[in-house]
Amino acid sequence: MIGTAQVTILVLGTLALLGGLVGFFKGKSKASLSAGVICFVLSAVSYVVSLTNVKIGLILADCVALALFIIGLMRFAKTRKFMPAGLMMLMSIVALAIITLALVKG
Question: What residue ranges do the domains of the chain occupy?
């Protein structure tokens, strides 16, 4: 289960980075690019930490996933559009569930 959570951390970070790149290239949004890079870096750090200290790494990853969910929720409430806010909410809540389950089952 921990291995699945670690892969999930990498997938979440990569998807956040790709979303930021799409936002930058399609909409010229520097904020999207910055957010994507920051989420990718935080996810990468969480992954690396999880290799030596699983509990701390998964807690960090949970925080990143929760932050992405909250940001997605706020944007979705404002725009009522599934793309990209709803998709961000969906991917982050799935990641949050997988990572939290691994954390609890240890």
Answer: 2-105
